[in-house]
Structures are given as C-alpha cells and as structure tokens.
Amino acid sequence: DSGVTQTPKHLITATGQRVTLRCSPRSGDLSVYWYQQSLDQGLQFLIQYYNGEERAKGNILERFSAQQFPDLHSELNLSSLELGDSALYFCASTRQGQNTEAFFGQGTRLTVV
Amino acid sequence: DQQVKQNSPSLSVQEGRISILNCDYTNSMFDYFLWYKKYPAEGPTFLISISSIKDKNEDGRFTVFLNKSAKHLSLHIVPSQPGDSAVYFCAASAPGAGSYQLTFGKGTKLSVIP
User: Fold this and answer.
1) Residue B62, min C-alpha distance to chain A (Å)
2) What confidence tens digit (pLDDT) does each residue in A17-38 have?
3) Which residues contact A99 (CB under 8 A, 6 or more apart)?
4) By the CB < 8 Å criterion, does A60 face chain B?
5) Would you list which residues of chain B are within 8 Å, Cβ to Cβ, of chain A?
6) CB–CB of B41 and A56 under 8 A?
7) Residue of chain A whose alpha carbon sits nearest to that of B5
8) Per residue in B18-47, pLDDT tens?
C-alpha cells in the first residue's frame, strides 16, 4: 500500500460527458502529480500541484483541468470526453524540496464509450 | 520525441538467472533516474533510483547502473524470481522550478520462467 488513494477505480462514461477523478496523497506529502497511461504507452505527465498551487504542466489537454484543495487532496476534471481519452489515470505524491521517489496510487481506469 | 526509451518491450528469463533491463535517454538535463515495477491493476511501485553523481546503486537483488556518457542505464536483477514478473518502467527527472515530474519509458515486460 503506497498510501496514495485514488477513486473511483473504474469509470465508464459516454463521449461528451464530464468526469472527476479524485486523489488523496500520502500523509505529509504536499505535491500531487497526475499521469495518463494510454494503451501501449508509458506514463505521460499531465500536471503537478504543490500545496494548492499549480507548479508544472505537461501534456494536458485544455479539456482537462485539476485542482488541489486545502486538505491536499486533488481532483482531475476531464470534460467533453472523447474515445481517445480512455486510459489509466494515475496520481502520485512526493515530499517537496527533494528529488525522491514518487508514490503512486492504484489508478483510475477510464473507459469512454 | 521520446526522451526515455526502453527498446525491449519484453524479456524472458529463467528463474535464478540474471535479468538485465535497459533504458536510454536523450535529455542531458536529466539528473535523477528511477525504476518502477508495475503489476496489472496496480499502480507503479518504486524499486530503486540513482542520482547522476553516481554510476551504481545497489539494493538487495536489484542494482542500477548509469553510464552518463552513453546516456544509458540498466537494471540488474539477480537472482530472478517468478514474483519479479511484471512490467518495469524506467523514469527520469530534470531539475527545475521545484517540480520533480517524471518522464517515463514505455516499459519492458519481464517474465521469469520457473
């Protein structure tokens, strides 16, 4: 158990819809990272939040957005969903201020039909 | 443009033998490298890491080697066990603006045959 909790584990939704994925980082971790893993692809960095503020952005579509709340949990919002958005979405957390390993949640498998 | 490449999608090794997983990178700004293991339906689990100031790091059966001039790193597992069967991801990070985002390779599926 990494200590990072993601909900839901599975999500099936129709094209054009909007979904919200939730992540609770490890206790004490201020940074949350979101990654997307599509079929046969490595994990692609989407966005990072640190203590409630956006810190870095990767290959995140404009239809996607995220936020981190005062209790440090984070949500990734995906809207106007397309078939190609079907993927595994992982959240990871790290201690800030040091280059160290990221701890990953179990992921949310999103299927857009 | 893939900055971290794992050119072998799969690898089969006999139990008890050595498994060697390879990874190449192109971004010379990367200064920290990690290996993650992933089982189906689970998130990636951290295995071992190495800083660019070192060329080797060892943790039990796992050793990571870094060759900066060749921009190459490898993970050695000795001896390999059936429980090591999983997908292994190489990842790297570059310093900057307090973000330690990781760039991942596509993974190598290791099968350890009993």
Assistant:
1) 16
2) 999 999 999 998 999 999 999 9
3) B31, B32, B51, B93, B95, B100
4) no
5) 4, 6, 31-32, 34, 36, 41-46, 49, 51, 89, 91, 93, 95, 97-107
6) no
7) A42
8) 999 999 999 999 999 999 999 988 999 999
